Amino acid sequence: MWNFLFSLxxxxxxxxxxxxxxxxxxxxxxxxxxxxxxxxxxxxxxxYPMMIxxxxxxxxxxxxxxxxxxxxxxxxxxxxxxxxxLGLVFFPDDPLIQLGLLLTALLPTSGMTISWTGFAxxxxxxxxxxTVIGLILGSLATPFYAKWLMGTxxxxxxxxxxxxxxxxxxxxMILGITTKQAVIWKWGKDRYEKNLKKKFPAFSTLGVxxxxxxxxxxxxxxxxxxxxxxxxxxxxxxxxxxxxxxLSTIVGKILFSRENAIALVYGTVMRNLSxxxxxxxxxxxEQGADIALIIAMxxxxxxxxxxxxxxxxxxxFGAAKEEEVLPTSPEAQR
Length: 334
Prior knowledge:
Blueprint: H1 2-10, H2 12-29, H3 39-52, H4 65-90, H5 95-106, H6 111-119, H7 124-150, H8 158-187, H9 189-196, H10 200-225, H11 228-255, H12 258-269, H13 273-283, H14 288-317, H15 321-325, H16 330-333
């Protein structure tokens, strides 16, 4: 069971398309309406486990205010408006897809922000802070951005969005903090850090894949009627990620050290698509599957692009300092 869950998490670039295809096939051959009852449980399964490992206390440690401020400026003053503009250009007559594109850009950082920063040998402490700050600011700002930018094109239930954010963000956050303390109290901090901590994100991945399956099943008939739609969604998403990577890389190289620049890149490019999916599926009722479609597509690009960026990090920012002093051994060369 654990191996299967870890395999799904490790291979999101394949598991998400597989669950998308499975959902489309299910929705085409069967009536998927009963799957709506799974949305709330799957949303909780998606968000709650990642909140257990959230290190809120890191926010109060100082020392990197410039990179934190620049990161959140890119996250909230540039990328959402760029995504909104692309939505108007590519889908002028489809406000639901416009909103889905906007939601992919409104909730910065995910647990993978920290992971990818670590893989690229960036500043992990800065990435942790970006993750917590981005989650809190994004949750508070999303209803207002959505109302401000999309309120004339589609009904934005401001109160309902806040209510759902409390249910899918604040409540799981409180339960996550409580669970972490209970686990440490019962099994000790060492066992939590070494063994238990890495198990929780696997459950979150299962929730993500479940929501993707449900969203695709509910949209299956429409997708079969208009298969070109899937391809058309990739273009604006690719543009957003290319521009985001390019902008954050240039700003990072000019303003910050290698480690902080890498944290800046992953702190702006990685989006909390899980919560964006949750908002789409729980707030907007029947329209939620339309909005969720483009968010699900973003997973594919985000995971793949983040992995490739790690491969080219040394070419972009130079090798990490510790790598320069490590002795070369036959084992290391293999």
